[in-house]
Amino acid sequence: MKEEVITLFDGILWPSVALAGLAVFFGIVLAFASKKFAVEVDPRVTDVRVALPGANCGGCGYAGCDGLAEAIVRGDASITACPVGGADLVDQLARIMGVTAEATERHVARVICCGDKHNANEKYEYQGIQDCKAAEMLAGGSKSCRFGCTGLGTCVRACPFDAINIVNGIAVVDEEKCTACQKCIEACPKKIIELVPASKEVRVLCKNTEKGKSVMSVCKVGCISCQKCVKACKFDAIIFENNLAKIDYSKCTNCMMCAEACPTKTIYANFASRKKAYIEDEKCIGCTICKKHCSFEAIEGELKGKHKILEDKCVGCSQCIVKCPKKAMEMR
Amino acid sequence: MKIIAILISAILVNNFVLSRFLGICPFLGVSKKVETALGMGLAVTFVMALASVMTWLVQVFILDMLNLGYLQTIAFILVIASLVQFVEMVIKKTSPTLYQALGVYLPLITTNCAVLGVTILNIQESYNLIETLINGVGAALGFTLAIVLFAGVRERLETAPIPKALQGFPIALITASLLSIAFLGFSGLSIFK
Question: Do A22 and B74 touch (CB under 8 A)?
């Protein structure tokens, strides 16, 4: 009887005591350590981190969302630093950080090339690694235009949001899905992807800085430096340098006149979405201010009389709306 | 001399990943980029060295004293898990830079079989404390070597023209097996005599 007690003692009690002792010891050490080595984290960091999208795309320039959350709370980054989150996120962050948000214009990436396989020629048949960076090393890719999109999809693979597709041999950004994280801009070996305001629907789709004749020989839709767009633009929004037109989006009014004037259709505009100005008769006091500011003579009406928009002349530049003192106009 | 033998044996001949097939999960999971592979290797080295020493002490001064050798596995898991937790806290407080470098990898490696494997092997081979430490570090260096080599190969596979059916994990597994066969060549090394 006595022997059995001893075995029981050896077989169960000691192991239990030893293991429990170890566990309790480590438990106490960890509890002690968690107090002693506690790193004070600003509770706002956690809040900001939760609010951020969490894709860790690195578009903000910090090492993932954690890095940005810390930078925002430290004050190193603005609450609008995340290019992905959009207005909702800025609102949330403004609430957490207790600051007011300035409205930010949504930006999207655009591939500045429209030389797809129907418009631009091939220099040679490329059979190497299906990647723009690899093709770039072979005489700048197989496309005849050395400024054009190679179309092997390096940007497509770089895009964390699945917003780029290859259509007819060139990359096209789906502006609905694009979050302006700039991954594609970094990835593109041709450097032909740019960030532009999403609201501006007019775009010059060419990067070729050569003279008109050599552009024409490589691509049907390249910018041939005719400068017709410069003359067509009433707002001085087209900068012409290095044999290439470029739109200054801070001046562009979406009037799409440059796109109408462009003989090679290098300047793209979505004419379907073109709006017309509209005057609310009840509010119009006949001050003629809108008429004076219309660059297209699309408004008629006498002083003190109701004004009217000539729909066939209005191009939707919305300058009259900006100037109307009675807020009697809107775009439709 | 024995120390050098243990080191080389742990790194090359009995490479933890490629000969003993321990720690396959991080080997396949964290080997897409050389950079992250190196981070993982660093964390493993850190944890294995510490765990080897701690578990050896626990084995000799607690389990052996009380004749409780059969509690080895569970006791070691307890020791390793607590140890890593503790080390993580200390690093977070004392060296934020090191914490950033090891950060996510530390908890990842805590419960890995490679760490438990090396601690149990230390006891089985009845190493003394110094040899235990060397074996732990050597095993971890072997792991680092294997995972970095593998990551280097996988980075190149990204752009290689691979048949559709083999893309992704299949080709990774084939690569791993080829690497393993390559390391088989070391088994002929006679460093033990």
Answer: no
